[in-house]
Every structure is written in C-alpha cells, then in structure tokens.
Design a protein that fits this description.
Blueprint: H1 3-6, H2 22-25, E1 33-47, H3 51-54, H4 65-75, H5 81-84, E2 101-104, E3 109-111, E4 121-125, E5 132-136, E6 148-153, H6 163-167, E7 172-177
Antiparallel strand pairs: 1-2, 1-4, 1-7, 2-3, 4-5, 5-6
C-alpha cells in the first residue's frame, strides 16, 4: 500500500500546488517526464528502523506518534512486529524488515522504500501529496542535463503538510525523470 492509499486526504506535501502542465508540451523525449518541484536533501544514511519505532509497546521514547502510525500501516499492517521483539528475544530487529529508515544531508529523517540508496534525492513535486525519492542517473555526456530515476514515495514528518511550499525559501527546479 502506498502512503496516498493508506492516508487519503491526510498529507499535502506540495500544499495546493498543481503540476506545471506547460512542461508536458516542452518534452522532446517520450521516455522522459519533466516535473517541477523542490530538492530537500540527499540520503546520507540508511538503516533498519529504530527499535522504539518498530515495537508498538515501547511507549513514547521521543519517536513521533505519526511516524509510528505510518510505519505500522505501511511496514507492519498485521501488527506482528511487536511479537518478534518480546522480552527474551536477543535480536535487536527482525531480519525480515529491510532498511527503510533514512537520514538526509540536512538532518531530516524518515521512512523510505527498501529500494532506496544513499545519494537518492528527497523531493516534493508540485501537485504531490507526499515527498518522493529520485535517483540521479549518470550522464552520457558532459553537456547532457541531469536526469533522474523515480524510486518511490517517502515519509518525512516535517514535509507532509506543505511547509516547504509555504516558507518561500527554497527554489523550485525541474526534474527530468526517465
């Protein structure tokens, strides 16, 4: 399940913006989609989620309740993770939970798909309800513009309600997705 499906009408990462449809007409490559948005950071570390996030019985140890809610709806919909972490189990984390917790270059942390890698870029795209991860692709030549591969949705609590679009401090740019 995607964040959008699990939390309909909850998140508005891009505020009330809409995709810039003029970019659709300017494309010269049918295998490319150009979207305008905001670059918010680059993943610098990936790890398994913290135990306090995974275990629903750990109480409030500084982990946001919204982050816990999102984690359990997306990664543990059957609520079985807590049973794996009962007292007496010497494993810090269940082996079947992939690295889905990330930290960005500007210190933000969040949840990502298991396919994420260090170097992926956290973006909010105009019209998008959630932040997205995109991966820079290697340039075939020095004069070629930057292109990205779409990785998937991500969750960064500070970005989910459109704050990035309200502050006016960040410059929008065009991302060419292949």
């Amino acid at each position: 399940m995607t964040l959008q499906e699990q939390f309909p009408c909850t998140f508005r990462a891009s505020g009330v913006t809409r995709p810039d449809e003029t970019l659709f007409n300017l494309q010269d490559d049918d295998l490319q989609l150009a979207l305008r948005g905001w670059r918010l950071g680059t993943i610098v570390a990936l790890d398994h989620p913290p135990k306090d996030l995974v275990c629903p019985f750990s109480g409030d140890n500084g982990v946001s309740s919204l982050l816990k809610t999102v984690f359990h709806r997306i990664f543990d919909p059957s609520s079985r993770t807590g049973a794996w972490l009962l007292h007496g189990n010497n494993h810090d984390l269940p082996g079947c939970i992939e690295k889905c917790f990330f930290v960005t270059s500007d210190g933000q942390c969040g949840l990502c798909p298991w396919t994420a890698k260090e170097g992926d870029v956290v973006t909010v795209l105009q019209g998008g309800n959630v932040p997205y991860l995109i991966r820079p692709l290697e340039k075939e030549s020095a004069d070629q513009s930057d292109k990205y591969a779409f990785v998937g949705e991500c969750f960064v609590e500070e970005l989910m309600l459109g704050f990035v679009t309200k502050d006016g401090m960040r410059q929008r740019e065009v991302f060419a997705l292949r």
